[in-house]
Amino acid sequence: MMSSVRDYALSNWRQETIVLLCQVFLRANLEMCHSYAAPEPVIEFINRETMALIIFIFDEKECVNTIDDTEIRGWIRLCIEEPAQVFVPLGREVAERWLIDSWDPVFCMFTVLAVVNVLHGEDPPVLTAVPPIDTILEVARWAQFEENAIWHHHVGSCLSFFEHYDAAIEQLNTALALEPIWRAKRNLAEVYWKKDRLKDSLRLFREGEAQYAPPPTNLRTEHGIHDFEKEKARDLAELRKKMGLLYIQLGDHSSATCSLMRSIELWDFVHICTPVFLIIRALVASKSSRDERILQVLKMVDRDPWSYNETVLSRAMKRNFEDWDCWDNTQLPLVYAVSAKRCNDLEWLECKYQTLIEENSGRDIDMICLNESLAHLYDRFLGEEGKAILIWKSIIAQYRVPDSIRYETFCRARNRAVAAYGYRLLANGLNWERPISYHIGAREDLRHRDSVPGEQ
């Protein structure tokens, strides 16, 4: 059946197929390639077998001669003579998006490498392998673009991704020597960080924060007006977040708090939650007025600056259960509760949990996680054991949830509920209770955690 369809297509739609292939490869529409989710099929498509199939379709003089576009006819004849030329226009276009624009350097580099390999008669690149420095430089130079500051910046970023840090530093320094590109300086700071050159990294971050300036006017793009003020807020919010994290790593929690607060105050939708978590960590490690300041931060972000019907506090409390790998965020509800207890503001925190649970009544995972935190507040801080037990039972009773993507998050929340309920039953059976000072002391233990894995 499939062979019959193929034969019919080749005999009746051959010219249309040839024109379509020319539109794809000669005048490349890169929207089909620009896929961060799954670039592998695009890269693996560029190989000698595909090339041979395309040339077989092109090799029909009667169909080709009826095409009106002389450029297409000339390119088809060139491809028949030199089959590897099929992928060259696509490769040059992707190289331009990598080395002149700002597309994902890894996807672009592997795509261009696949084209270069076809030209050399080699197999497609192994996407799980780390390409050597010489290969990356050869691929970058293949399209023969001017090796200006932007070119060196994008090559350096690609080298950094593959952990060729010394080569990346060389390329980024070359870029900065040619032109003070802000993002090149930021990327160089990140490479220094990865090389444990923390003081050099911090110096460049500070310079980048002081020197950042977006283009002076808004430009119209194919997607509408490009808002440079929003871009500036996003860039600076991310930079200040990274500065705060670096300060934490250096043990300077006061400077970390200042940088993270400046990041939060930009109210950038993408980067705001992590600075909230990190500033709470920095405040936990500080020595004075930390409880009052933690409550001030929580109340400050209890607003909706984007009119999305969701406050920053709501997003942060829900993200808390997703971003647990950056810091032990399962401890954050404990931090909130201890600070509220010491500031005589437990009712405010209880009200926030109740409001969030009501707003997320149709989202199973979010509601379960928030309920688990509220149960902890009832049991340990408000003395309402009965309410806590009812919540734990309702969570434990849920064995399956429809959102399988977040199943791990559900399991963590449910396991905490099982452990808390089991402890409560044991404590009641033994007529024994941990004093509130135990939970406050547990939070104090967080001050001794100096490293923050995974967030650079």
Which terms summarize this structure?
456 residues; mainly alpha; two-stranded antiparallel ribbon; 1% strand; disordered C terminus
Major sheet size, sense and barrel closure: 2 strands, antiparallel
Q: Tell me the β content.
A: under 5%
SS class: mainly alpha
Rg from Cα = 29 Å
Order of helices and strands: HHHHHHHHHHHHHEEHHHHHHHHHHH
Tell the overall outline: elongated
Mean pLDDT: 83
Name the strands of the widest sheet in spatial order.
Answer: 1-2
Count of DSSP strands:
2
Poorly predicted parts: 215-226, 449-456
> Helical amount among residues, as a percent range?
55-70%
What's the helix count?
24
First-to-last CA distance: 54 Å
Structure description:
α15 (253-264) runs antiparallel to α16, α19 (332-342) crosses α21 and α21 (364-382) packs parallel to α23. By secondary structure, this protein is mostly helical. Mean pLDDT is 83; it is low at 215-226 and 449-456. It has a two-stranded antiparallel ribbon. A hairpin with a 2-residue loop joins β1 and β2 (224-226). The chain has helices at 2-12, 14-25, 40-45, 48-58, 61-65, 70-81, 88-99, 105-119, 133-142, 149-161, 165-178, 182-194, 198-211, 228-250, 253-264, 273-285, 290-300, 312-319, 332-342, 346-359, 364-382, 385-396, 407-430, 436-445, and strands spanning 219-221, 224-226. The protein has 24 helices and two strands. Among the domains are: 8-126, no CATH class; 320-430.
Concise overview:
The chain is mainly α. It has helices spanning 2-12, 14-25, 40-45, 48-58, 61-65, 70-81, 88-99, 105-119, 133-142, 149-161, 165-178, 182-194, 198-211, 228-250, 253-264, 273-285, 290-300, 312-319, 332-342, 346-359, 364-382, 385-396, 407-430, 436-445; strands at 219-221, 224-226.
